Amino acid sequence: MTSAFLPPLLPVFAAYLLAVASPGPSTMAIMAVAMRQGRAAGIALALGVVSGSLIWAALAAAGLSALLTAWAGALFAIKLAGGVYLLHLAVKSARAALAPEPRAGTEPKLRTRAALYRRGVLLHLTNPKAVLGWIAILALGLRPEAPAGSLPAILAGCAALGLAVNLGYALAFSTAVMARAYRRARRGIEGALALLFGAAGLRLLWARP
Predict the structure, then answer these.
(1) For 78, left (φ over 0), alpha (ψ -120 to 50), or beta?
(2) Are 28 and 123 in contact (CB under 8 A)?
(3) Which residues of 73-93 are buried (b: 16+ CB within 10 A; e: fewer)?
(4) Residue 18's domain spans which residues?
(5) What is the C-alpha separation between 78 and 52, in angstroms, rounded?
(6) Is residue 179 part of a domain?
(7) Domain-located, residue 170
(8) Domain count along the chain
(9) Selection from 23, 41, 201, 22 nearest residue 120 by Cα
(10) 67 lies in a domain?
(11) Cα dihedral value 175, 179, 182, 184, nearest 10
(12) Are 191 and 93 in contact (CB under 8 A)?
């Protein structure tokens, strides 16, 4: 990225960094999976989240905002799917919180990295705030005075920031210290996740179109 792009795009990158680093369902899921299943699992989920974000970015750049304006049902469908999926995650976390401590040799089967990657993609694709956020980001960066080539610069820069933040969460919360903390506070962590996912899902379902 040349120096000609950086000054005009600094507000774009600052806004994106603030959004991606703020605690939410995706970041909390990465933290929990990294503590529960380790570094590789956390990274797989984080890569799925970043991939989902870039899919929304590509769709927003291709004119999804026009579709959302022309067909109000599109955003409603996304919100409905997102709310239901978040409630599904809330139920799973609540069951994990209420489950007894597993005895040695009876631990539940862990999800594969491919399954975790798909979960990360789905978690982000069912979040309507993600596409609305990308529409706002692109509107901020693609002003009439923006230099040519700003769109690929925005996508590349935000992709790098998203990878750094989400992989950072996966690495930080997959340490042995955090794994021990999860085992000690498993019920509380899963219970907090259930509340977070449940509140986020209900907020999506109850929000006005």
Answers:
(1) alpha
(2) no
(3) eebeebbebbbebbbebbeeb
(4) 6-206
(5) 14
(6) yes
(7) yes
(8) 1
(9) 41
(10) yes
(11) -130
(12) yes
- Side-chain-side CA neighbours of 75 within 13 Å: the count stands at 20
Cα(131)–Cα(204) distance, integer angstroms? 14
Going residue by residue through the chain, which has 209 residues, state the pLDDT in tens, using 9 for 90 and above.
Answer: 544 555 667 888 888 888 888 777 888 889 889 988 899 999 999 999 999 999 888 887 776 556 555 555 666 766 777 678 778 778 877 887 787 765 544 344 567 889 999 999 988 888 777 777 787 777 777 766 666 677 888 888 999 999 999 999 999 999 988 888 887 787 887 788 788 778 877 876 776 55
Total residue count of the chain as it appears in this document: 209
pLDDT at 194: 84
Q: Using CA atoms, how far apart are residues 169 and 39, in angstroms rounded to an integer?
A: 10
pLDDT of residue 69: 56
Helix boundaries (H) for 38-185: 39-61, 64-70, 72-98, 113-125, 128-141, 150-172, 176-184
d(CA 94, CA 67): 37
94 within domain boundaries: yes
- Tokens 């009876």 locate to 106
CA distances from 99 to 93, 95, 197 (A): 10, 6, 18
Could you give the angle at the alpha carbon of 41 between the alpha carbons of 35 and 44, nearest 5°? 130
Cα(162)–Cα(18) distance, integer angstroms:
11
